[in-house]
Amino acid sequence: MRERKGWMRPGVSALARVLLLLVALTLVGGCSYPRLKPCVKGGKTYGVIPGWYSGEWWEMYEAALSYADGECWDKAREYFEKCIRIEPEDKWRIRTGGTHYTDWGYNFVGYFPHRELGIVYYRLREQSPEFIDLAARELVRSLASEESKRGTDYLAKAVEYKVRRENADRSAPFVKNVDAAGAFPTSEASLTILGRAGDDVHAGRILAKSDRGHERVFSFDLIDKEKKALSYKTNADFALRFPLEPGYNLIDIMAVDFTGKRSEPKRLTAYRDVQSPAITFWVEPRSDSKNIVALEFQLADEFGLGDFFVNGNPYPDALEKKGYGFPVEVSTDSKGTVVTVAVRDMAGNESVQRIDDKMLKEVLEKAMAPPPAYDRGKPSIKLSDDDGTETSDGAVTVVTFDRQKFIYGRVCDDTVVASLSIDGVAREFPRKRCVGFAGIVQVESPDSSKTVELVATDAEGNKDVNTITVERKTRAVSGVGARLCVGLEKMEKVSPGIVKDDADMSKDAEARFFEAMTSQGRFQPAAGEHSGGKSAPEAAVFCDVEERRNLLETRAVLVDLDTETTLASENYYVDVPAGQEARSGAILMLMEGLNLEFAESLPLLEGKVLEFDKDTVTADLGLDAGIKAGMKIYVFKKDPADAEAGCDILGEARVKHAKRDRCMAEPERLDRLSMEEGHLVITK
Description:
By secondary structure, the chain is α+β, with helices and mostly antiparallel strands. Helices cover 21% and strands 37% of the residues.
């Protein structure tokens, strides 16, 4: 028998053999995966990760991030490239090895080696001309796998630097074929602007501004995701959603390239019509029938009429009549609803007039009254409000939030109305005992007024003079809501293991998130550890947070807990200066930025309860504010002026009808007993 030597010889205990084997394996492992070489700068050590380095891709990524934080660029490039060879795709969340829970997350990290390598090359751009091309290549690969605001920003910086260095952009961009999608005019609160832009290098972005104070930006995509390559838009189409105010909106659209050159602006004039058409009518008896009369309808709209329906059937040649003399024959023997007429304008706004037997009897009695032998009475001018209710004679004051106010009504006389003028301008109409009128009053300046005079004359020369004062006021309804109750789920930490105090950072970020929510007034924190709120959440934020020595980044999703639909998904990052105090301030900046992104993507509307009963809640949010039938509103038991108090949700209501300055909503799961006039409402 061969004699055993070394650690296998007789006399060596089993325990000693195991220990010797472990030492040997450790030495072998150490040869395969040498320890990371630290990089010391400014008294700080970079490139060292917790625990024993075993050559896993996530350890390489951690080391690369640490080297990059210390500006040890060569080592950072080396280890980013190493981990890319093993795990090549950037991802918001990627699982590391093992199944155990660590103090920095359940084996999930944010993984962006291409993006971070591209940023390293961008910061080395002055050292070699090829580095800016490498930066763009890596950033494109990152964005092709996973979009991120940080990657998009640095790609734009890299391309701008490249264009300026090569002096490639020699001419200004252009914009052409600008138009609006959909019907014109429109009743919608926004429209889609279509067009085409180009540049000798890249069109860059589209900037749209209106005379009503709105501004929007459309950025052309710089990458082809399928090819994972840069894709310059020298001639490309764009579609930009733009908000509209009621009335005329003058929108200037221009292209801006990477060097800051701007195209000549193209102007788009859009008209948002939120006023429903006016319907007036009178009775014309027929001499050949005692129980059949003709109802003469007159229609008017501030921009233009569309379709006219009688009992649901379209009226023939309605548009050709220009709003005058729509005769509809009805029987005086009818009971209940005699006739229902509806008119729709070119923007899609609709008015409905239902005439029942009582109303028909009243107007018929007036129409059948014999004219006096001598017409000594003056004509009667009556103005209608937005829901068709007629005002009394005399001076009338109406309010508008826009530059113009659509007014309408009718003039009646015992014999015949001979003439009518509005602010000195004569109106043409058929000579009848009752005629309708309509017009537009312009008030150019906010918080000002204009008075117009209406003069009606009958056939005998009798005259009636009324005045209408249109007051233009600043809209009290805010364009951004302030009390949607939002809760925050526990933040998922996706930072690499090089961050020692990551757990504390995440806890601090949750508190900062609620602090930002309260300070910006867009959301109301729901009840929770950090918020002090009183209500259960109506929506929840699910958030991933990554922290490094010089970076804070988050991706968050806002979910409606009622419908389980995603309301918004946002990504935000902040570059962090050195020092714990600066890091704490950066967390607040991060959460304020995240809140702002959510607020801009959710332009909710805020108003107050005007009145209510068991079937209807009336609020001061109307067509002017962008309210439409079918929208849902929350009702809160508090005054919005009290910014410190929590919100107390009384329930929900769904809008069933909207006028210019108010809406009527049907309650759904609403505590009516606790409701009062002046309570807050907000659209969902």
